[in-house]
Structure formats: structure tokens, C-alpha cells
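U., I forgot to send this yesterday:
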Amino acid sequence: MRMLVVVLALCTLSGSAVGQSRGGAYSCVEEASGGIKYDESLKQWRGATFPDEKFVLNLRYLGPRKVGDVIVAEMQDYYVSLTRSGESNGQACLGPGANPGSTVGVFVDGKMERCIVGIYDAFTFDLDGGRYLKIHILGYADGLASVSGGVCTKIN
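Result:
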């Protein structure tokens, strides 16, 4: 029994150490994008490219995920925000299943399943692999839909 408690404690501590090491700021640069744009004059969708985007991803480690009284060591909670190049204020990034107004993102083994910025951009981050994917999901309303991919490098 004592051995089980020691193993669980070590798993929790190692998960916390990994989670804390991922906290900080990451410089992210889009490398490729493509999508569609609605052409009003032709009344149809057309293939399109979009300008590359740069942003800073900020992660503040909050601790391991707790489900009731159980700590899930491989799941780490963060406050996540994204500041686009040329802007001074970051936007909160909402994780999957987040309550309205929640700013907690969940990383599992270095990957964030989904994070929504504003009402139209869905991001997936793989910090261990140094890359991300963005999907602009409001295409039916604003006439643009795109998928972009890029890299992220830790800057502090």
C-alpha cells in the first residue's frame, strides 16, 4: 500500500513538473494556409490564400487537472491567451468543454485538443512537436473559411 502511495505521489509530482515547464510564452508563426472565399460577384466559393499570421501564445500553469478529489497527472490546466502581432491585448483561449467565461485550457501529454479564440478561430497545439493547426470556422457567415498550420517556439 505504501508503495502505491509513493508511486501516485511521484506521478503527480512529475506531471506538475512537466506542466510547469510548458508554462511561459511561445512565438508562433504560420507557415502555410489555404481555404475558400465567397465571391459575391460570381455568387460562388473560390479557392483562396491568406496572409501569414504571427502571434504569441501565453500559458500560465494552474496545476494538474482535478476530477472530484482525484488528480489526473497527465492532464494539466493552464490559463491560455493569444496575442496577435500588432495587437497589445491578448484574447483568452477557451478549451474543450469550457464553461462560458472560463479561460482554462487543458493539455494532455503536451497537446491541447482544441482552443477557441474569439468566436471563429479554433486552434490545436502540440507544444512538444512545436506546431499548431488553426481552423477559421465562421466561413458560412463571413464568407471566409481556412485551415492554417505553423510552428511555435518557446521564448520564455
